[in-house]
Amino acid sequence: MNVTSQPINKFVIVGGGTAGWLAAATLGNIFKNHSVQVELVESDDVGIIGVGEATIPPLLDTLAGLGIDQVDFIKRTQASFKLGIEFEDWHTKGQSYFHPFGTLGASIDGHEFFQCWLKTQAQGDNTSLMAHSPETQLAKANKFFLPFEAANTPLAHTKYALHLDATLVGQYLKEFATKIGVKQTIGHVEDVELGGNGNIQAVSLTSGQRINGDFFIDCTGFKGLLIEQALSAGYDDWSHYLPCNRAVAVQTENVGETTPFTNAKAQDGGWTWRIPLQHRTGNGYVFCSKYVSDEEAIATLLSHVKGKVITQPRVIPFTTGMRRKAWHKNCLALGLAQGFLEPLESTAIHLVSKTLALFVRMFPDRQLSPVLRDEFNRRVRTDYEEIRDFLVLHYCTTEREDTPFWRWCKQMDIPSSLQHKLDFYRASGSLIPGVEELFQPTSWYAVLTGMDVMPAHYNSTTDALESNKLQASLNSGQQAITQSVNKQPSHDEFIETYCRAPAP
Ligand SMILES: Cc1cc2nc3c(=O)[nH]c(=O)nc-3n(C[C@H](O)[C@H](O)[C@H](O)COP(=O)(O)OP(=O)(O)OC[C@H]3O[C@@H](n4cnc5c(N)ncnc54)[C@H](O)[C@@H]3O)c2cc1C
After folding, report:
1. Whole domain around residue 263: which residue ranges?
2. Residue 399, domain member (yes or no)
3. With a threshold of 0.85, does the pTM exceed it?
4. Residues enclosing ligand 1, CB less than 6 A?
5. What pLDDT, in 10s, does the model give residues 237-279?
6. Ligand 1 center to residue 111 CA distance, Å?
7. Which atom, in ligand 1's list, is nearest to the CA of 189?
8. What is the mean pLDDT of residues 7-13?
């Protein structure tokens, strides 16, 4: 084999938020015994966004892949556990549903569980789908435990994620990355130097220092200092599908039990989040400025929080959408510099990890193969579009008509890809997952049934199952979940014995 490679010798990461330090940790870990240099430049003038505190299960795989001890991470980021999201008032005021991680029930004689459940509903049973979800039942009971300690029970495959303190996560990853050889430079980038081929050659700091590299990773937040301001990669604005364009965030003292789930409550012009951590609670209101002013949003948020407010409300503007090319020239945009989809399903930090994993899989050399780059950009776009469609689903299926915002959502034009998925579901009662999709059918079924979108019929192959036996099988599965859930400790008891963080 005649392999001529021109390896990248130096990566320069600009930006020291979660995206920057996760990139530094990932690349630093790969090259820790190697001569490839990884340098991260972060400004002492511009802070990090400091929100982004709910995650999804793949984060735990990312941490494990880096060799990070989960208990140590939890203690040092004041993390609590998350089994899913409680959605209040989305369909109509007063109605709520739960989107759990994990799967629902087990297939019966080769028939998909959801079809079996639909058949029992058609037979007149009204047990909710979520009665068959271990995560939902644990969450409702405010309980938690580690799935691997419940082998041979219906809870053995329970999936969970973490709620965490964004600032402490940044500090943790910084310490991790610098220990394995990543060079940290504090300085404000004021100029990006391009070569004749349009590639970035170096960044210059206000101090006069010039930092050159072979490949640059833009983690500078919404503005995209390298990818947009220097390289003009372009941005696709998706506000016509997801019109919320501002958030106000505030932290409060904890009150009552620590819930093992995120709360997302629909409001007049958007929705509020509540994310419980060990030492405090994060709260926010994501809203659309066409319908709600900053002052109204702050007032709504403050009237909904539970504990004593401990920070000033902070308003954060954003534009939903994504960079047209996440990888352009010799620059990869990550995190907020790459794009932003509102935090309804806590997907942003995951997109950072997933983009990094894809980049590592397609790792370029200095020739920057357009074949790799184009496939990479296509895959990143597919990820964004998949999540965008799933988020739009939460809005467009509303039956609310009590405010202009919800009337708009009920009438909105939706992406054709989502329309196809909805049409297919309505006609067949099932969903076809795409390649490497984040949200598997269980997630779609949870939101669809939660929003009362039911298919025309169940898959009639389940008629091969004898009705009474099928009902008995579902009943016993559900009872087994309830019995196992009852034996578990409360979320707070579990944290106390397993991973209580020191007081801040
Ligand atoms: C309202 C809101 C809620 C969110 N909630 C969630 C959530 O629940 N879950 C989730 O996964 N994600 C969430 N996110 C997204 C998440 O916060 C971000 O994806 C994550 O924090 C990564 O941010 P970042 O590192 O890209 O940018 P930032 O944190 O903004 O970091 C930017 C970095 O760039 C540096 N920088 C900027 N300019 C320069 C310069 N000229 N020179 C040198 N350095 C510079 C800054 O100093 C900083 O270090 C939320 C985002 C918002 C806006």
Report:
1. 246-317
2. no
3. yes
4. 14-20, 41-43, 46, 48-49, 51-55, 166, 188-189, 219-221, 225, 247, 249, 284, 316, 318, 335-337, 343, 346, 348-349
5. 999 999 999 999 999 999 999 999 999 999 999 999 999 999 9
6. 44
7. 42
8. 96
The residues, any chain, with a CB within 8 Å of residue 420's CB and separated by 6 or more, are none
Q: Are 306 and 173 members of one domain?
A: no
Centroid of ligand 1 to alpha carbon of 236 (angstroms):
19
Substitution site in 12, 14, 41, 46 for ligand 1 pocket (most atoms within 8 Å of beta carbon): 46
Cβ pair 425, 451 in contact under 8 A: no
What confidence tens digit (pLDDT) does each residue in 350-398 have? 999 999 999 999 999 999 999 999 999 999 999 999 999 999 999 999 9
Q: Which residues are catalytic?
A: 82
The torsion angles phi and psi of 77, rounded to 5 degrees, stand at -115, 10
Please give the pLDDT value at position 1: 55
SS3 content of the chain, % helix, strand, coil (to 5): 40, 20, 40
Q: Are 276 and 258 in contact (CB under 8 A)?
A: yes
Whose tokens are 């039911």? That residue is 454
- Judge whether 40 lies within some domain: yes
- Give the number of domains in the chain: 2
pLDDT score, position 34: 85
Q: Is residue 378 part of a domain?
A: yes
Would you mind telling me the total number of residues written for the chain in this entry?
Answer: 504
- The answer on pLDDT for 2 being more than 80 is no
Q: Which atom of ligand 1 is nearest to the CA of 203?
A: 42
Taking CA atoms only, the protein residue closest to ligand 1 atom 7 is 52
Q: Are residues 312 and 325 in the same domain?
A: no
**Phi, psi for residue 128 in degrees, rounded to 5:** -70, 155
